[in-house]
Amino acid sequence: MTTVDPGPARRSTETKACCATAYSSDAVAMLLGESYHPGGLRLTRRLTSRLALRKDGPVLDVACGRGASALAIAAEHGCPVSGVDLSQANIAAAAEAASAVEGEFDFRVGDAEALPFADGAFAAVVCECALCTFPDKATAAREFARVIAPGGRLGITDVTADRDRLPPELTGLGAWIACVADARPLSEYTRILRLAGFGILTTEHHDDAIRKMLSQIEARLQLVEMTAPDRAEVLGLDFGAAPGVLKAARRAIDDGILGYGLIVAERVDTGE
Ligand SMILES: C[S@@+](CC[C@H](N)C(=O)[O-])C[C@H]1O[C@@H](n2cnc3c(N)ncnc32)[C@H](O)[C@@H]1O
Questions:
Q1: Is 147 contained in some domain?
Q2: Closest by Cα among 209, 210, 203 to 187
Q3: CA–centroid distance, residue 2 to ligand 1 (Å)
Q4: Per-residue pLDDT tens over the stretch 148-198
């Protein structure tokens, strides 16, 4: 039997849907905790401290997951915060969490490559551990630039990878969803952002954050395996494959193939 390639547009839609579904699952919530990115809210604070946030400057969190960063930004900076994510379940969870705290929130289902917001609507945009999964990164970067007012800032933390040197355990759809297979080196993210109309203010390497996240995932997997092995099937976890993938990921970090990075950029005022 021959399989027909559905074409790049359909493949991209399927990949995005798969990613959103995976990040809506209880297994991911159990393995990752409240923040779905290496470094957790500590790294979010480091990022947002460089965005010159003001009380009257609305902030957008692109691919906000269940809203942990959005809620923290509103609590710490007092600004209105919007969140957008492809996963309906994540947006529902974020809206529910927001209804229990003080602050001005607006959570919407939407695609980072076609943001459902007006031009220049935000003083700042954050995007954590998600640009790596967007199939069309250049379009997403142009969307970030479109919705940020001139002079506003963009804060990104993301998985970095030298794709040509990734081991086979870290490619394929599962690895894409796990933010690895289509991650790029920090220098390529900054190139994409410059082309979209940003000036780069800061770049930092935080590879230890991804190392710590792998240890947390490993510990939580071991706990489930020891205490509730029957939950593995319910959660869709593959205990057999996990050690090989974790080992390959650690070796890739040691070899400088895989890491985690932070970028702060400023939307250049083109005078338009
Ligand atoms: C690794 S999680 C990060 C979530 C959140 N930023 C955090 O750090 O806790 C990736 C998120 O990106 C969302 N996502 C994936 N592709 C997307 C897209 N094209 N547009 C909007 N959200 C997307 C997923 O649903 C998921 O919630």
A1: yes
A2: 203
A3: 33
A4: 999 999 999 999 999 899 888 887 656 665 678 789 999 999 999 999 999
What is the C-alpha to C-alpha distance for residues 24 and 18, in angstroms, rounded to an integer? 10
> What pLDDT score was predicted for residue 231?
67
140: containing domain: 8-267
Q: Which token pair is 97?
A: 């969490």
pLDDT digit string, tens, across residues 63-95 = 999 999 999 999 999 999 999 999 999 999 999
* pTM assigned to the model: 0.90
Residue 164 lies in a domain: yes
Which atom of ligand 1 lies closest to the CA of 65?
27
**Domain assignment present for 2:** no
Render the burial of 100-137: b for 16+ CB within 10 Å, e for the rest: eeeeebebbebbbbebebeeebbbbbbbbbbbbbbbbb
User: pLDDT tens for residues 134-152?
Assistant: 999 999 999 999 999 999 9
Is 86 a domain residue? Answer: yes
Q: Please report, for the domain that includes residue 239, its CATH number.
A: 3.40.50.150
Q: 64 CA distance to ligand 1 centroid (A)? A: 6
CA 165 – CA 157 distance, rounded (Å): 21
CA distance 63 to 85: 4
Tokens found for residue 271: 């005078």
Distance separating alpha carbons of residues 44 and 39, to the nearest angstrom: 8
Which of 59, 87, 107, 176 to mutate for ligand 1's pocket (most ligand atoms within 8 Å of CB)?
Answer: 87
Overall number of domains in the chain: 1
Backbone angles phi, psi at 239, to 5 degrees: -60, -30
